[in-house]
Amino acid sequence: MTDYDDLFAETAPDESVFADKQALDPLQPPETIRGRDEHQRQLASMLNGVTEGYLPPTVTIHGPPGTGKTVTTRRVCQEFVARHDSVAVEYVNLKECRSIFSAAREIHLELTGETVGAYEGVDGAFTGIWEALAEYPEWTVLILDEIDQIKEDANYDPSDFLYRLLRGEGKLKRDIQLSAWLISNELVEVDLRLDSRVESAMSDEAVFFGPYGASELDAIVGPQLEMAFRAGALPADAREYGLQEAAWRWGDARKTLRLFRRAGETATDRGLETISTDRVRESLTGTERESTIAKLQSIPLRHLAVLAASVGQRTDAGEISQPVRTSDIYERLNHPSTADRFQLGQRTVRQLVDDLATMGLVDTWTESHGRDGRGKYVATTFDPAWVREAQAAVAADLAGDAVE
Ligand SMILES: Nc1ncnc2c1ncn2[C@@H]1O[C@H](COP(=O)(O)OP(=O)(O)OP(=O)(O)O)[C@@H](O)[C@H]1O
């Protein structure tokens, strides 16, 4: 039988380098938005359009992960509506929405507090959305975070969804003043392949959040590092090294916080009083691995299948052999044991490989083989073994869903 007193005593950190580990939690809203003055100014001047009777129908906000798109946009909007009764702001994260209906349902839920039944469909959700907005203040800013998710719906064109949002009959009839602020990693018009009808209904307002440099990361996470660690636990050289590497590799504030948290945990596990540059170096690999696997778990299954096929078989020595040709990927996916499951033609495989390259997950290049023509080669931009780990995690999730 377990002696819990012993168990907890043994696992309690006695010499922790942390003073307040929670300070490194990226989910805690920051007290102050730092290093984004110009962006805040741009967003504020768009909001100030209401004083002249105009809000742009859309504002696109894009840039790589962890660059402050969400926190900055939400904060500026919240502060503005707190000072202007004629404006309301609503925020909806579409992260979990893999269909247009679920996106419309999520917006409806945020505006009304009520769920739309599946039988009411997208039409029902939009009717409810317009009825709700008719009761709102004169202007509404609707922030749709991770808008790129709506492209996952194979049965519905993202253009139709956005067109309804911008030019829907129910909206025009009620003269609703809605400004849709669309947040995503890629430029939304390109990523969602929006048609010209939607593009002309959108406005040109776009705000780009670039990756942070080392000094910006210092300004953003610096105060959190001060709070998180005991005095002297994070020496200046290790701190500097971590910030430089984080800026060079990612420019992502969230990953930077994770990097220092992991480094601190390793130091504490090993009973060390300080976090050396070596601990930070180890943490860099761990952070890279963790975030890549998390990203792989979130991509569509077809893309993951193509990645798995590009990773291929281990050699006799247990190594994964890369690069592979796109034709090999196609053949592996069309092996009799899996062909029925995937049903991916050559063109689709090529398209999926291009998507993976755009996501930064693979590198591709073409080589000439003399008389045999040319071949396109594919290799992952990260340790290919991580694909197997992501596959195992996805399979476990799917099995869990099936049980529920
Ligand atoms: N300028 C900033 N000032 C203070 N904290 C910031 C800033 N930028 C980012 N952060 C921190 O990083 C976290 C991630 O930021 P945020 O969610 O805004 O990034 P994002 O660009 O929307 O990322 P994603 O594309 O992954 O959704 C925030 O919760 C906050 O802790």
From TrEMBL:
GO molecular-function term, one example from the UniProt record: ATP binding
Any one Gene Ontology BP term: DNA replication
Residue intervals of the AAA+ ATPase domain: 55-213
Keywords attached to this entry: ATP-binding, DNA replication, Nucleotide-binding
CDD domains: AAA
InterPro entries assigned: AAA+_ATPase, AAA_16, Cdc6_lid, ORC1/CDC6, Orc1/Cdc6_arc, P-loop_NTPase, WH-like_DNA-bd_sf, WH_DNA-bd_sf
Binding annotation for ATP: 67-71, 212
Pfam families tied to this protein: AAA_16 (PF13191), Cdc6_lid (PF22703)
Function: Involved in regulation of DNA replication.
HAMAP family in UniProt: ORC1_type_DNA_replic_protein
Family, as annotated: Belongs to the CDC6/cdc18 family.
UniProt name for this protein: ORC1-type DNA replication protein
